[in-house]
Amino acid sequence: MTTTAPSNPPEAASVRLDLWLWAARFYKTRSLARHSIETGKVEVGGQRAKASRALRVGDGVRAARGEEVFEVQVLALSDSRGPAKVAQALYEETEASRLQREQARALRVAQRTGYSAPESKPDKRARRLIRALGDIDSL
């Protein structure tokens, strides 16, 4: 198996932000990356950016994806999506960001510890009780 190096053409020292986020595998499609940028979930250098913003090596990017927030430093540019190992070489996550994500993940897991999914579907009697409890909430 061969791995390809990130394409960094010498004539173009920048790449579109939405294209880089897609190539770095932060988002599954370019349209998802563009939507995230337009809704203000991505910042470059502490400022909101447009999808067409030129991203350069050394820029700081903050991207929110679901409940996770990534703060990364751009190490290389690429305009094509490649294997995960190549994508991970495009950026370096800050230590503070990584620790914050791990703490938030541990908190979410701790909040779910008391919940256990039912083993089977509710029977007729249980459905009636559920409906009766639902009526109390509507008062």
TrEMBL record:
It comes from the Bacteria. Keywords: DNA-binding, RNA-binding. PROSITE patterns: S4 (PS50889). It holds the Pfam family S4. CDD domains: S4. Residues 15-77 form the RNA-binding S4 domain. Belongs to the HSP15 family. This is Heat shock protein 15. The lineage of its organism: Bacteria, Pseudomonadati, Pseudomonadota, Gammaproteobacteria, Lysobacterales.
